[in-house]
Batch of 3 targets.
Target 1
Amino acid sequence: MIPETVARLRTECGLPVDPSRRGPVPLNRFFEELSTPRVAHRAIPTLTLGKVEAHLRSEGVEVADLGEPNLRVDGLLFRLGGAAWAYVSDDERNPLPRRRFTAAHELGHAVLHGKVMDRVAIDETIEPNSKDPIEREANRFAVELLMPAEVCRARAEELRAEYRACPRGVLIYRLAAELLVSAEALRYRLDELGVGDD
Amino acid sequence: MTDSSGITQFLRKYRASAVGVTPPRPELPTPGEPDPVAGPDLSAEVDITDWKPIPLPEAPAKPDETPTRFVDGSHAGQSVLCVRSPQGYPIAIRLAEVGAVALELTGRRFTRAFKAVERVVGFVADPFPWEEVEAFATALANHPGLRLRVVPARMPEPGAANPFDYGAMQTQAQNRCQQEMLRLEALALASAPAVPTLIDGQLGGRINTRDATDRPLLVGLVKAPTPPRMPDTGFNTLLDLGPGQRSPYFHDPRPGDVPLASWFLRLASGSHAAPNWGTVRVDVPWKHLERHSGIDARKGFVGRLSRWLIDARCRADSYSRMPVSLDPIVRAEDGLKPLFTPFPVLANRLYRAAGLFRRDEV
């Protein structure tokens, strides 16, 4: 279901997968192109619930108490009518690839869970093996969006065609750099796709 | 006439040898016992307290005990731009070409069996907004004259370096580009798993334990080795090594990486060579050593391989790293360098794409 949702989103946003083009998936363009809901993203140093509330108020949004103001969170999605705000923590425990993953995860909440979630989805930490089905779906959305299967397979085939080998360890680091995702996330993705030689 | 006997007496007594300028070598760890859990077992061949240089046998190596494929990597690059992050950190942007090559020896002929060259841009990306790095990386990757792959480096560990230190940022970018070279070497290794191979550098990080174990022969030659922590007898042995002598081998379990059998080998000394110059470390997967049962068989293998390495050493005086190099590796290096774009050409393409026509304005 989620791969189909991501494929539909790509069509709606006019951003199809094109393995002949190099570089990361243009996640920011998805935020820009998505119209329902419209999602703005924002990185805030050492994100806390208090900082989210302050930012929402500065945007003119009436916001009730979100919770303990000093609670640190990795990401958060706040939804109001046809608009949403995706927040990502910008701190040393969230390097750039992780911040992108969190942003895609929050976008996943916005796309997938509009009808089932409350106004706010708080992600204290984003666990790859979360037991919460909602969180697992948002993770799956981020994986499908940021690490397209077509690109993973195409890069593996390129390596094999040119060098007669495609060691997974090499593919992980090359593709993680190209797609601006973490090597750990990509390792999971290649394992599940069965791409690359063990 | 002055009496120089006081000079000679002292110098003779303490084994003086003339030394000249030699490249810097890694700093030695403090003498002591290695970590009993993760550290190497230095007494695998000879008890560490009895270590002394071992002369090599004259026996030639057996046919399946010598490498016929030689892998070398190269990394040519420098910082070409400095940007200031939103926090004000000076971030070095390093432009580099990295490559790897493999030469195969057939009879008396070397042929190039593998080549890979790539252009990369490394910089500490964490301080920047992800959407801007995303757009920058896409533009560099798809620019027809550049085709540069961005390799994002991490911020230095908190407390390890001042983020306003430009040098620290340069180091992070350089190390990240170097990793890309190691990946290409790993690719060169993986492309011919059934051929006995020697790689210029350490085996660690380039191959997993299973692949290393399955190969017929795999040798790493480390030109600038950092010895393990060991007692004085170990360091004395390294300093006493003469050309054509080796240290006892030791077992380095390397948790999480390929367990190794390693030893130090003095390839050459040369005129005015410093006492720590000319010694390399030889690594083979421990499992390869275990194919030889019994200590004598293992000593025989290590001795014959070392003899082969001595015979294959570089003899070109004009080559600055001659005393720590093998002739096939120098040939591989010579075969790789011409594949690189002259660096000023590459840098100017980037400056042009960046709008830095006179290098000092955007």
Target 2
Amino acid sequence: MGAIARALANSITTGGVVQASAINNTSVSSVTALPSGVDTGDLVLISSQTASSSASIEFTSGLDSTYDSYVFKFINCHPQNDGRYLKFQFSTDGGSTYTVNMTTTFFNAIHSEDDTSYALLQYETGLDVAQSYPADLIGSVGNDNDENLCGTFQLFNPSSTTFVKHFISRISSSHDFPMANDNFVAGYANTTSAINGIKFNFHTGNIDAGTISLYGVKKS
Amino acid sequence: MGSLTRKFANNFTTGGVYKPAAITNNSLANITDIPAAAKGKLTLISSQTASASASISFTSGIDSTYPIYRFEFINMHPATDNADLTFQGSTNGGSSYGITTTSTYFETRHSENDSVAQLAYNTGFDLAQSTSYIRGSGSITNQNDSGLSGVLTIFNPSSTIFVKHFICEINKMFNFSGSFESTHSLSAGYLNTTSSINAFDFKMDTGNIDDGTIYMYGIGA
């Protein structure tokens, strides 16, 4: 028996079953799907969109009663123009219109790269909204090549027809000043209609690059 | 050596191990589980829905399985107007709740009529080595469409070395002198014990939890 054949034989049990040590593909790179019964975790990626000089990014599907909690993650969103504010607004008609009133709070912690100009925590009365739309998610973000924003936005029970829709967001952005900007936004969409669409855009100019991913948090 | 045997042999290393190209099953239909490292880091442990409930307690599932536990509050609605959501931990499986705690509490408020817009620390809602229930939120109006939603994260509750840190972030609706407002409540701190915490209790500071669901998730490291 040749060496390889002998080694191969050693990788098989006496019952003819291949032993785990005989498979060295730790990534199983060819796998494209797993059986539905496999537990892959309870934060489920629903969809993802990548901007490419996009006026806005809209999610008009996937927001329904499947989950009680939805999480958006912003990865390296970069504005085309300097000093832009990321805004969002909700739809109850699948994205035909975005006219849901919100009341939000906005505070941030900022610290400048020079360590002297800014180091403070503040409520931003110019960046909250009272029974209006759209609402801001961050203060100004710069458009230098390495400037961008990353963070999380969580929306609770958007399909409810009983309650207003609460949301909480925290995003770190590189301000055009330049400085670090830790943005905290929360509030509610003041409607008892189901929300089934959301739009993100800068207040002017395009989203030059970046990805926004939508996840559902399993409830069973 | 026949051609089939030769091809078969070419799918193995000299050590007798399958090469990646030797496996072509794209669906792996017989798999029933995958390694923990390949799973999403969030795992639903249990959930409870209030129905005029005095409290909601989680007395199982909090152990050393996960280093982080996350509670998600969905549309918690108080029976009594201006009730606050509170919580406490237990080291005896829920027989008693009252672990000495030191915590911070601050909130932002913004009214629908734009008359209130502020960020403030609330010294009445923090704790200093107290066994009282910890405030997750301030007052919640009990009008039909009101309530709160948010997240409480507990770090390494099973540790027998460290105090138990928590971070709580909630958004709620409040009725301030006839004007509704959005309030973003942020509290954090530590339950000052080196005993394992194995249960948590949630309740309003007055009256029942009329409605709402709390989900408990474990987060893998």
Target 3
Amino acid sequence: MANTQYLVGLDVGSTTVKAVAIDATTDEMVWSDYQRHETKQPEKTLEFLQRLEADLQIGPDNCRMFITGSGGNTLAPRIGAKFVQEVTAVSLAVEKLHPEVNSVIELGGQDAKIIVFKEDSDTGRKKKIPSMNDKCAGGTGAVIDKINAKLKIPVEELGRQRYDGIKLHKVAGKCGVFAETDINGLQKEGTPPDELMASLFDAIVLQNLTVLTRGNTLRPHVLLLGGPNTFIDGMREAWQANIPKVWKERGIEVPQGETPQTLIKTPKNAQYFAALGAVEFGKAEDDTVGRYLGMTDLEHYITVGRLEEKAASGGRGLSASVDELATFKEQYKPKRFVAPPLPAGASVQGFIGVDGGSTSTKAVLLSPDGDVLRKVYQLSKGNPIQDAIDMFTSLRSQVEEAGSTLEVLGVGTTGYAKDILRDVLQADAALVETVAHTESAIKFYNDPHVIVDVGGQDIKLIVLTDGRVKDFRLNTQCSAGNGYFLQSTADSLGIPLTEYADRAFAADAMPIFGYGCAVFMQSDIVNFQRQGWAPEEILAGLAAVLPKNIFLYVASIPNLAKLGTRFILQGGTQHNLAAVKSQVDFIRSNFRGASVQPEIIVHEHCGESGAIGAAVEALRLWKNGHRTTFIGLNAVEKISYRTTRNEATRCYFCKNNCLRTFIDIKMNTVAALDGSAAIVDKPADETPKAVAAAPLKFVSKVPKADDEQRLIISTCEKGSVEDVEAMRTIKAGLDSKKKSHPNFVDIAAREVWRTRSPESVADPLPKPRAWDRAGRARLDAMTRRGALRIGMPRVLNMYTYAPFFSGYFESLGVLGGNLVYSDFTTNELYREGAGRGAIDPCFPAKIGIAHVHNLLVAKHAKKKLDYIFFPMVDTLHTELTHLQGSNACPTVTVTPETAKAAFTKEGDIFTEQGLVYLNPILNFDDLPLLKRQMFQTWAGALGLSEDENARATETGLRELAAYEADIRRRAREVLDELERENRIGIVLLARPYHHDPGLNHEILDEFQKLGYPVFTQSTLPLDDDLLERFFGDEVRDGVIPGPKAITDVWKNCYSANTNLKVWAAKLTARHPNLVALEMSSFKCGHDAPIYSVIESIIEKSGTPYFSFKDIDENKPTGSIKIRVETMHYFLKRYTEDKQRKKDAAAAIDVELAAYEQRLRAELLQAEEFAEVSARGRETFKGRMLPLIPVPAQSACESIAAD
Amino acid sequence: MSHAPTMFPARVTSRADIEAEISRRLGAERARLEGEAGLRTRPVEHFKRPAELPFTADQRDRVTILIGGLTWKHDALIRAAMQSAGYRVEVMPIPDVPAFQIGKEYGNNGQCNPTYFMVGHLIQFLQNLERQGMSRKDIIDRYVFFTAGSCGPCRFGMYEAEYRLAVQNAGFDGFRILLFQQTDGVKSATGEPGLKFTVDFGMGAFAGLNFGDVLNDVTYQIRPFEAQAGETDRVVDECMAYLGSRMREREMYDLRKSTSFIGSRMAKKPKLEGIFNTLGKVHDHLYGRQTDETLRHLRDRLATIEVDRLRVKPIVKVTGEFWAQTTEGDGNFHMFSFLEREGAQVIVEPIGTWALYMLWLAKATHASKKGLNGQGWKHELQHRLKQGYFALGRRFYAHQYRRVVRALGDIAHPLISLEELATLASPYYNVFARGGEGHMEVAKNIYYTTHKKCHMVLSLKPFGCMPSSQSDGVQSAVMSHFKDMIFLPIETSGEGEVNAHSRVQMALGEAKIKAKAEFQQALESTGKRLDDVRAFVADHPVLRNPFYKVPHRHGITGTAATFVLHVSDLMDGKARWAATPKKTAPVTDKAILKQAS
């Protein structure tokens, strides 16, 4: 490097620019700086270059430049720098400056990286295993920024924020938006900001340790890099607190004299590591590489090039032309609500609907004719009860201002606070949001097909068939842009929300946002500002991305014509015309119907549509004769209450230990004012699950005055009381309900693991004693079998084949008690073991590793296991016929291999623990092959002869068949009972391993509690008479070759559980007392191709169909609750309709029987008469026959008497 | 409630008439009452899958077969082979992101990435036809799409249904999706199938696959070292045009036209004619003059590209899911061109490996069941015979592939032994866990690393690919056990190209360091200056011939490192000059050349 005086390293990151200049001769850092670029990457880089030129006189003749970071690639060619990939740069710096380091954790503004160094003992080189976050902001510095924007901790204070010694709370680290939701809740309870921030650090660390390490252990020394790790003490402490726990669990020795603080550290100049590494990279390049070109091109880029880039990357504005916009505005101009005049001095009767939403509360007053008399809206003040009180006060004053008085005939509630409000107000109905929105849409518009409800936090897409909710999508898993996001962006850009649409329409062009993650959209905004996009253009771009988030991201329904033709746009966000226009344009352009155009309507009360639905329900009840239980307007104004949610409210009735909310209401004031009972009993089926009145005499941890009535908000029934005795009563009630409405998901999940205790099929023992070697070997083998302990994970196809293995092993002499299954899947079990996983398949497969972990650390540690047996089931047995195959899903089949890899990659943990891991491939559709596979696996361990292995395999299959027959027999009994009683049962269309309560999130239990028996696709009866009844005609007509064939609906039938699901759907569609609930896991490769097939089979028959697709590790409690309530509501209507039809049919039968009797009498009389006439004609051939009149009535009577 | 007035029958003749009349009237009354009570509804019709329309022989002249999904070279050559057999064929362009978006719009949710690309690709093509003015009816009548079929285990076997659903959703109800079954040949519901396997068609397609594989490999070996940028692509385009036209215009062997003594005799014997005609065709396709001449011309043309092998480039072996590792567009983020732009030399995966895998799997599965269906010498004989057929098939394929490799300059990589791959994978991934990608990805990673055939293995796995994702779970253990391994899995999701490229850059940085260190070490071991080596190469043009076969050095991976060691040996007189294929007389068929150009 003859003329190179300086090597400059630039690191242009998402939030900061860092630069170092190294003297090429001395290798010393002679210049460095680190500054936030405030979204102006090129400007800040230019400023750095100007200063470098001024301070060091760098120029093309004496300087080479190497650039890294997310903004580096774009800038590199403009200044002549060579781009160096960030991880490469960081690794080189680490290798040079800290050769002792084995792991690096770098948290950047928008990315998180982990680099694990592994030394190759042969070459001495260190191999780097890097991993980075993907398209999600979870676990990155962006999450800290987002939360701190809410907590508003000053930058200097944030740097000093601690982790050690701070109380932690449960906060989701997976997503910045979910973290915000958790933090919102905690903040409302008064949790101090430092505890919230420390909890966030904890969540970020756990997120990265479980996901980003890809199963690798972060061995010491660990280097912490990047802004948050460098500048925030607490972030560092969080790593230092959590990484050693992993070391301890995985047996990583800590060098003597070292502490977590010395082993997990932030180095000097941590912020410059990437820049320094870029220089290191440059040293190995030719002298011609990275020659600095000066600033001219960069300056040109800032002034001209960037604008060109912007123009090229952006899209047209929200409207194609002024005329088009005018037409749109004309069509969608919001109808101004003009409150109808009220009769002065008279009493106004009405129904009030209250929608307690997440960000706002809405209420309406409906007349007995269903007209909207008054409405009111306010942003939530943080407490739904207070918000509701305000609503009532406002409505009352609006009426009274008109000189009238208000008489409330009924009250309905909806929204997330509907149950609390119902109990506090003694409202007449609490309607789930989906139903409320549906009722409202139906009230105003004829036969709506799709309701698009965009609220503050939630996006809901409700799909209707014949006025019934068929399906709905809710953004429970990811926030993905919503009304609040539009509002907060407008705020941050200094534009009032009321001006949003006009400003956005004024933009001729707009940036194109990628749909999806809101955190990344936030960073997109930053980038677009950097590119020079104006605020109104950004607002237009955000409005344009909203429908993509609704239809493509949240709903994943790109072909809108599938849903129907009439779309109703509801929710507060629809007040924003820019958002409406983008939705209208999107729906039209994505409507793939052949010739029909969609009809898109904005609900004329879009903000209050939920409240209207609730009021409509109250009105309906009133019309049906119900008289209101509402506490009265005066009482509402006097409600005095207090809420408590802290450690004292935690429930200990089960292992979940949920936090509850106690609301103590001063009831005597309320009662005294209106003279009504404070809490009245609801009909059994309307009693809310999560809210119940607690007994007053119980001594609570949370003190309560005698005149206070306590409402407990909990996640399940048991938590709705404090007293253990009361809980027992509730539990007994639940148990009784469970017994009378069997849930075969639960039954199968428990009973499949029972020991089968078959007869022994082992070779006989030598008698009387073993004299020869073979005899002694037999005795030894049998003794060994008696003591052998075999661990099996309670996952996947073990949910089908446990009876087989039980039959096999027990018939050979292994004790039933020595067949040890891992615990049922729980969140804790998953969290404890999942850290070793390297991939992210479907959740049922992902838990395989956690179950093996459970066998090792829980079962084996307690009492030694000899084997862990996790077979790879390749093909399954099947009752169905005319199939292409009966394969297991490949992900499921191979899970035992990935589990093995997880425990053998850093040393063979099985061997270290003194046990053997066996994962043979098994084919249950090929008996001879199965026998061979079992023999090859167990011959040595069990000392088997081929014959006894064959007998044991057959015994296993017999036990499996017996288990299946027994459960199907019981299912048949329940099915017959349903028919007799004209009730409804739910068929869970899901794979047998979805019986796992940790996988199905116990959703079916909720239905059982509501009184629906639950069947599963693998427990449906297969009795001949049933098959004949439902498939006999089709077999005879040649539509299907047999009753258990699915060739009429599904051609590519080679996946065993898929085939079974299709068949079960066919049976459900034909059975009058069954409805379908389809459930499948996120990323299920074999379910996805039959989604539309299953839906079509069920819906074509008119049978109700509901689904829980994309079930994953997170239990979407809110979504489950809404879904269950929605389904229950419509199933109740469905059952009522069935009963009405049945009654009508019975009445018709009675009527027809009478009619037949009369008819028969008349006709027989006529026949008799005809006979007599004929005989007469015969007798008086050729002569005149006298006519003899016969009274019809007497003939009837005589026939009846006979 | 009032009843319908009772009417006496005009003439009652028997008790049976009365019963019939009662039944009729009761039925009518029931209908009326049920109608009034709202109980009368349409009879329930249960869902049935859509009927499949056939493609029959009589439609061949007016129906165009659509194909696509492989590399552009393979697609073009398969088309040429089909055209030579008299079919109307059109190749669809390489799927892009808009196609992927369309696939998402019309298909089921939750599909794997290749499904979306391929399904959307077909609809995009049909929509373009419609945009050009063709009616939907015409499109449905005049086009048919052929796709590979399979029976599990991943959802690839369900593609067919997915195509059907999507075309139906897109308004092309009734458009024919037909299966080119991996096991059963071409299926058709009724009549003589429209696409029929003939010897000429089969051998043409076989040749097309092999030529495509080898040309692809050769291109990726030459291009990174081309002295003049863009020369390789220009020459290869020419070669492909030439090859396509030669295959299309190929004169098919016909025993009856034979002028040889034996041929003319056999042609007169009806019983033997068929057999000998078939054998003659097979021989002509494989060893005939037309094939030899064509390959020779290609080789000569490619040999004109000058290369500079002293460029130090990390060798990246690309593996992964079948489609993701094959496509050359948005489906894998244009990974091949990206890698080359970033300074890598790429080893691509031939489709031949998949063909061998199918044969290997059939043989291994059969072997695993030995003795299960009976014992004794008869069963033993049957077993051995069948094993022999599989082995013969495998050898034949590999042999023919080798012949094409040799004919095209002998620098393309031979097909890997599937037995060796199975052995390498076994400790980590059960080779009978079907899917192909699973154990082969693991095995290839070990194979290419331990044989020092590349500096880095890049596995392209589409979002949602089940076997490929599971193999990735196993690769973490493999990487721990083979410390010098650089392995990078990339999930191709249709979006996020920049992110994927960044990850590749990250691993490629490592591989570059490894390649550079190796080269530096090799150069130092020669004791020569690089400039001296360059000068020597400049003086000897043969060393710049792409087909100059540099002898392999044990333990050396990089092209430049191997080359510098060889040149040093040449300079020192320690090595012999390797042979370069001799240039042959140019092809005389001017018409073909003209057409090709």
